[in-house]
Amino acid sequence: MNYIGIVLVNWNNYIDTIECVNSLLKLSSEVPFKIIISDNNSTNDSVDRIKKCFEKTARIFIFNKNDKSNIKNINYDIAIVNTERNGGFGYANNVAVKFLEYDDAFKYIWLLNNDTVVDKNSLSYLFTAYQKNNNAGAMGSMIYSYFDKSKLMLAGGFKARVLSFFSPISILDLDIDGSTECVTFTDGYISGASLFISKHLYLDINGFDESYFMYVEDVDFSKRIELKGYKLGFSVKSAVYHKEGASTDKVINQKRPTMKQWKMWGYYELRNRTYYIMKYENVFYYILPIYWMIRRGVGVLLFDKEKIQRSKLLFKALYDGFTRKMGVLKF
């Protein structure tokens, strides 16, 4: 029997993870699945909280990163894998999929952000779309706002735009009608909020580039799928509701980021965009990171406090991206 492994990354955010798992347990799917929670060395009691919440209704087993023996012989509905360190989003997903590599029953992987809630038919639609489109290496969902479920945040993923790097695919970008089940595209990426892929292809492209730590790793991941000759796609009927940024304290509904938020996404996003350009694009595109830094710098000078500290982080992000100094920033 073939299984789908649904992978969530948790870091100190058991409340959202529990809500996400509750929605997953209500899924209607013709293919059986198991839930793998890759805990990124949470510093709170996330693992205990998650275990306690589901231990009466589901079979739960806790594994350490290097536990490879007897995995096939353990019956579980939810596995919690301790990654042993916070290596970022890509690292945690790689640990989970490496864990599944040793069980041949798992043929497919559904990567899902833990700050999402899924429609009960979302996985079924994803799987059907993936099966019907052999030229699509990975499949995404329609991502709606958790807070306004009628608001479409993006259709599957993003398309390349020169000045803005990538921008969300919207209904306005598409030529679809009520009979459309799936859309395929190139020169873009599928959001890591919901990404369905075969385990074989995931391993074939060596998973995520862990050096990004956070942000842009799904862009890089999708790029390598396309370099293998595949298109990307998304199911028009698969609905996922996203809180967006709950696991990283990203800016939501506020005018300017706090210094803490600036350190997290302000630095990593610019650095990682720059690294991606250096990794895949030609010299013509090298001017873009400088443009992005200037655009952000203007906002810092006009609207933010702590102008010197924020400006230094911008220059550091640009320098680190150009020199490929990646990994975790030591603040």
How is the topology of this model organized?
Elements lengths: L2 E8 L3 H11 L8 E7 L6 H9 L5 E5 L13 E5 L6 H13 L4 E7 L3 E3 L3 H11 L3 E10 L6 E4 L1 E5 L3 E4 L13 E4 L2 E3 L3 E5 H6 L12 H11 L3 E12 L16 H22 L6 H17 L3 H16 L9
Helix pairs in contact: 1-2, 7-8, 7-9, 8-9
List keywords for this structure.
331 residues, alpha/beta, eleven-stranded mixed β-sheet, three-stranded antiparallel β-sheet, 14 strands
Brief overview:
The chain is an alpha/beta fold. It is 35% helix and 25% strand.
Number of helices: 9
Structural class: alpha/beta
**Biggest sheet, open or closed, and with what strands and sense?**
11 strands, mixed
Radius of gyration: 20 Å
Tell the overall outline.
globular
Low-confidence parts: 246-253
Mean pLDDT over all positions: 88
Give the DSSP E fraction (strand runs of 2 or more residues). 15-25%
Distance between the termini: 48 Å
Number of strands: 14
Helix content: 25-40%
Q: From N to C, what is the helix and strand string?
A: EHEHEEHEEHEEEEEEEHHEHHH
